[in-house]
Structure of Ribonuclease H-like domain-containing protein:
Amino acid sequence: MEEAIVYVIEKALCEEIRSSNHWSIMIDETNSITDEKHLAVVSRHISHNVPVTRYLGMINLDELTAEAIAFDLKSFIIAKGLKVENLLHFGSDGAATLIGTKTGSYRRMQNLKMIQETLEDPQLAILNIVNTRWLSMSNSVKNLHQILDSVIDALRYDAEFDKKNHLASNLLDELNCDFIISTKYLADLMFILTKLINVFQREYVSFADIKIHLDMVYDAITAQFIGFDGSTPSYGTHLRKYMQDFNISPEKLPPFIKSFSEAIVDSIKSRFPQSNLYYSFRIFDPKLLPIKESELGNYGDEDIKKLSDYYGIDKVDEEGNVMEKIVDSDDVKQEWEVAKYYIKQIRSQNAAGGWEYIFNTYPDFVNEFPNIAKLVKISLIIPLSDAQVERIFSQHKLTKTRLRNRMNIETLNKHLMILLNGPDDFRRFDWNKAYDYWAMKTRRSN
């Protein structure tokens, strides 16, 4: 009967994606408790004028080459009766982490171990990546910073009154001024980074959110730890207070503070490269609309041209298949001159909620401005956040535990499909369809 329930849920899901016309996918990889390589596939599409994220399934990866992963992914999509040509966006946390490159999971763990050995930290068990990452790192730094004085006092007490306690003495030697400065610095730095991390924990992230928070991170890190145009940094809150209390001048600070801060900024910029095409979608975000009425007349003209030039021409893939244009480039420009004034009504809302309001309140908008409506919906399904994918892997780890390590991928996928895509209340589930499928399968088996 479980198979019948999954059949009904999956059929409704695929119909929902097909009715969206265009869709996106996000993928992420994980190793199960039995070291199997799995690829989770998540769809992002429009349902009832709202961008939604749905679990599509789990792929078992036998070969870990880019070509094999691409082939498995395409076969997976086709097997579900979905059109690859309608797939417009692709988001990934880095499937290349599976194949053991220098940025792979194995290498990252080796780096962590090396750092722990260098600092003579205890070799703690590596937690599920879903549960660690930046937020947990931030919490660890914050917790250590809050109790650092107590830790040092406790070690001093143990070292003084128990001469045989060499561990306390050795640890106390490591907790020198540079260590304290590093802890203060990281506490200030992680406070900034956490603000950006929290944005990407949301299920929906807008272009306005990204731009505002990225600019905040760049400026805050530069002002506090690098300095603008040769000016002296402010050195955060905790680090600055420590410098004042112990009369430490900026020249006496470890040089890694500036170099590490610069590396953090460069790393974030490399993960969020400027794409002229994607950046042009920002014009559909109500929060970025000009405040002055006089600026609205020419607002978005250059961006709408970039979008119409890209989506308004036919394209040919490597196999010679022709992908028909999505919009009429001339009509897009004309529609935009009027459609932009609808955005004024949703200025206070985020893009997803605002456009849902327009599509529901003015159902004729899609007919009056068909090309703009298509571009808006395309912008809403861009996978700017993989938070939902991470939540799926959290459920994956909770489902396939050490006690259930013999669960195969088919059974695991069924459980996740029901758990993540099933109705909140199964009293509303279409049991008749499930029964019909179950009865048909039963007759066939006979």
Q: What stands out?
A: The beta strands are 23-31, 37-47, 50-60, 87-92, 315-316, 322-323.
